[in-house]
Amino acid sequence: MPTEATPILEVIHLKKHYPIGRGILGALRSIPDQAVKAIDDVSFNLKRGEILGLVGESGSGKSTTALSVLGLVPPSAGSVQFDGEAVAEGIKSKKRLALRRKMQMIFQDPYETLNPRQTIYQIVVEPLEVHNITRNKAEKKQRVIDVLSQAGLKPPENYLQRYPDELSGGQRQRVAIAAALILQPQLLVADEPVSMLDVSIRAEILNLLRQLRDEHQISILYITHDLATAGFFTDRIAVMYLGRIVEIGPTAEILQRPQHPYTKALISVIPVPNPRLRRERVLLQGEIPNPINIPSGCRFNPRCPIAIDDCRKIDPQLIPEAGTHQTACIRVK
Predict the structure, then answer these.
(1) 81 CB contacts (<8 Å, ≥6 apart)?
(2) What radius of gyration do the chain's Cα atoms show?
(3) Which of 20, 74, 123, 235 could link 89 by a cystine bridge, Cβ 3.0 to 4.6 Å?
(4) Rounded distance, CA 23 to CA 14, Å?
(5) CA distance 215 to 240
(6) CATH classification of 9-327 is 1.20.950.20, yes or no?
(7) What confidence tens digit (pLDDT) does each residue in 103-141 have?
């Protein structure tokens, strides 16, 4: 049985490869089958009430990991355990529905995720109707009012009959948060939830999510390319590169003592208000490699400023026994 000390989410050697058809010419030339290695052996856990940031460039596999965690994308290998139960596409529909109540997602673009033809009340009440967990209309309405208030839309009664195009970007994202919260989930997967918002609104939304975490002990998996917001918002950070986690640890340690060259490069470009505290910028050459043809050895070596010959031969792994701050780099002593 799960206990308070048991992680609510465990991702174990997760892989997601998308096969690519060879075509007629490929078959004639005996070209071997290929695959896009979106996730290539990822392991991590998430504690109850913890906020974990999954950070990396576009194409690193963050969003695919998020979808796999929710069971929306079937893994090629490995497993996801939520609250002691396996999350898999093939589980029975009743069990899957029960899991979906406990796991909700907040998407990146509030302009795309809200149905423009539905009122705010219709959008937020829909999960209750899908799961059929309220007794009557009065209870439904009260749940919607309560959750809109929790999401910072006050007075909530003023929003019930409005449509998304009558709201600002920040208000729309609050509606999306309310729709995710109405089922009282234990896990929120937030995929770039503030990247489409004005800078002045981002801190408000992140503070709201952190307040909800504190009040309800919700665990949050925060997907972002922005290490600055991750540093402000998260308890731990996992840095992803080309389908792998290359460094993971407490947020303060990652920001103050980064070990992996990729993490150091990401941190070096974070804006710092005090010019005396600015770091020397590490500008990486080139783009993230094609996930079909992963470089041999360390997958970061073609862009790494400190790569040596061994980096092209040895594929470094995270060492589970290395403590809370782990990295995958043979140059780290």
Answers:
(1) 9, 10, 11, 12, 87
(2) 21
(3) 74
(4) 28
(5) 30
(6) no
(7) 999 988 888 889 999 999 999 999 988 888 877 889 999
- C-alpha neighbours within 13 Å on the C-beta side of residue 285: 7
Are 246 and 328 a contacting pair, CB within 8 Å?
yes
Nearest one of 87, 54, 84, 59 to 72, comparing CA atoms:
87
At 267, list the tokens.
């941190």
Residue 120 three-state SS: helix
The residue-averaged pLDDT of 16-30 equals 66
In this predicted model, which residue has the larger pLDDT, 312 or 99? 312
Q: Where are the beta strands (DSSP E) in the chain?
A: 9-20, 34-46, 51-55, 77-82, 85-86, 103-106, 187-191, 219-224, 236-241, 244-250, 326-327
pLDDT tens profile 203-244: 889 999 999 999 999 999 999 998 989 998 999 999 999 999
Q: Is the pLDDT of residue 45 over 70?
A: yes
* Distance of alpha carbon 71 from alpha carbon 88, whole angstroms: 6
Q: Which residue ranges make up each domain of the chain?
A: 9-327
Alpha-carbon distance of 230 to 238, in angstroms, equals: 10
pLDDT at 23: 55
3-state secondary structure of 185: coil
Over residues 183-194, the mean pLDDT reads 92
pTM, rounded to two decimals? 0.90
Contact 224, 230 (CB under 8 A): yes
Find tokens 């309560």 and name the residue. Answer: 146
The token duo for 29 is 């030339």
- Cβ contact 328:318 at 8 Å: yes
**Do the beta carbons of residue 186 and residue 103 sit within 8 Å?**
yes
The token pair at 268 is 């070096």
Whole-number Cα distances in Å, 139 to 132, 134, 145, 233: 12, 6, 10, 34
